[in-house]
Write a structure and sequence with these properties.
By secondary structure, the chain is mostly helical. Helices cover 70% and strands 6% of the residues. This is MarR family transcriptional regulator.
């Protein structure tokens, strides 16, 4: 006779499967966004940060920290994005020694055109499928999962790369 799976164990397996499926679909979607925008993944992420942080005066140093890049790496990346017309750099209005990175109208328009319809569709689906208490739990879960990802990323930043065999 086969032992019965306990409810917490079953839920754990289902949650693991759901998260793996979700992460895979997010990676697939991002790969397609990268293709359509004509950028690489790091550039796409930088563009996302600049668009989301627009009011907070994104700096090359902040991008370096968030993306785990060197100052030289950020400069090369910003040069690529500027050449494509996605970002513009300017001097900080009060501290002329600092540079601010801003998304251009082209970047905002393309992301708006591509991403906003997906977000609207997602919200409609979620709002029609769950009540407000369930949505509170989902939002809490996603926030906690995101916080864990940040902790894991920080931990990995302190790990030396594996040597080549």
């Amino acid at each position: 006779m086969c032992p019965r799976t306990t409810e917490p164990a079953r839920i754990s397996v289902e949650l693991k499967r759901a998260l793996e499926f979700y992460h895979g679909t997010v990676e697939d979607l991002i790969r397609e966004l990268v293709r359509v925008l004509g950028v690489n993944e790091t550039d796409r992420r930088a563009l996302e940060i600049v668009l989301l942080e627009d009011e907070k005066a994104t700096t090359p140093g902040m991008l370096a920290e968030r993306l785990g890049l060197t100052a030289a790496g950020v400069t090369i990346m910003l040069n690529r994005l500027e050449k494509q017309g996605y970002i513009a750099r300017s001097l900080h209005p009060t501290d002329r020694r600092r540079v601010i990175v801003m998304a251009t109208e082209l970047a905002a328009h393309r992301v708006q055109e591509l991403v906003v319809p997906m977000i609207v569709e997602s919200y409609k689906m979620l709002l029609s499928s769950y009540d407000s208490a369930e949505l509170d739990i989902i939002a809490d879960f996603l926030t906690r999962a995101g916080e864990l990802q940040q902790i894991h990323r920080q931990r990995l930043r302190h790990v030396d790369p594996y040597s080549k065999p």
